[in-house]
Amino acid sequence: MERTSLVELPRRHRPEVRKAHQGVARLLSHVRMWMLALVVATVGGVLPAAVATPAAARAAVDTIPVGDNPLGVTVSPLGNRVYVANAGDDSVSVIGRPGNTVLATIPVGDSPAGVTVGGLGTRLYVTNQGSDSVSVISTLTNRVVTTIPVGGTPRGVAVGGLGTRLYVVNADSDTVSVISTLTNTVVATIPVGDTPAGAATGRAGTRLYVTNASSDTVSVINTLTNTVIATIPVGHNPLGVTVSRDGTRLYVGNLLGNSVSVINTITDTVVTTVPAADGPGAVTASPTENRLYVVHGGAGTVTEIDSDTYAVIRTVPVGDSPGGVAVSPDGKSVYVTSQNDDTVTAIAT
């Protein structure tokens, strides 16, 4: 199932402002670390037991410079690579784990957005919004091996069918392209709602869930027949979508509705709506714990939520205008792209 999500927000037009903001952010980070060190030194290196350390302060945060306007992000099945689609300079950054350093930069199509890994980790699929195509990359050589034409403005992407199918959401065509990963050709096209954005697979690969941003719905697709079997009303402007680790719940980030819709995947109905202010768009679920991570584009933060009680565990500041989020297979790291900072924030869970 998909563990990535992305949402594109308006970016600033002046690179000088972005660089200045980035410098201030680094300075504030150093000041916070200095203040924490001062407090620890003052009490002999141990925080008083009566004082609870904020969860955000406990999290190890690393900031990784990548390409221009990073959007989608995903982590390889082995957890040793992170891939980032940079919409502004038509490239993919390859980040090594551990270490969180950029190892390679791969040229792709025009304005890449979504990324996902397939082929048992040997293939990377990148949607190119501006060129209406998908770049297929060998992760062994970090080179594009073929390019597949799809619908208008492809964004979200998900792997299904035991790795034999790739599903590409075409925002301007209101369709999903179904691609055979064996032949790298489109084998079906499925009509969905208005301005589809995100995609996730569930129910052992027999279901595909697609958010429709302009119709405020989620299309439920039977992947065996490539037909829409249900349409679920959710909040305003749904973008990100992810499936819980046990597959029984679907989480949808409603950007303009300031909420997360929780859907029962057996009944295909909304069971609760969780308030989430400041533009919740991208969402992802931990594969190892009952945790949900929600990106708030307006606030520049990521919220960790207990997916059993929907209580907020912590809120972690990230970069300016965060857009995509992914969690590592071991559940120990969360990666968030920041469009206006040209960075990826790595958060230890």
Please provide a written account of the structure:
The chain has 349 residues and is mainly beta. The chain has helices spanning 15-42, 55-58; strands at residues 4-6, 61-65, 70-75, 81-86, 91-96, 101-107, 112-118, 123-128, 133-138, 143-149, 154-160, 165-170, 175-180, 185-191, 196-202, 207-212, 217-222, 227-233, 238-243, 249-254, 259-264, 269-275, 280-285, 291-296, 301-306, 312-317, 322-327, 333-338, 343-348. It has a five-stranded antiparallel sheet, with no helix packed on it. The protein has a four-stranded antiparallel sheet with strand order 3-4-5-6, with no helix packed on it. It has a four-stranded antiparallel sheet with strand order 7-8-9-10, with no helix packed on it. It is globular and about 45 Å long. The model is unreliable at 9-53 (pLDDT under 50).
Q: What fraction, in percent, of the residue positions are helical?
A: under 10%
Q: Decide which structural class fits the backbone.
A: mainly beta
Number of helices: 2
The portion of residues forming beta strands comes to over 45%
Low-confidence stretches: 9-53
Largest sheet: 5 strands, antiparallel
Question: What coarse outline follows from CA principal-axis ratios?
Answer: globular
Number of DSSP E strands:
29
In order across it, which strands form the biggest sheet?
A: 1-27-28-29-2
Radius of gyration: 19 Å
First-to-last CA distance: 20 Å
Give the integer mean of the pLDDT values: 87
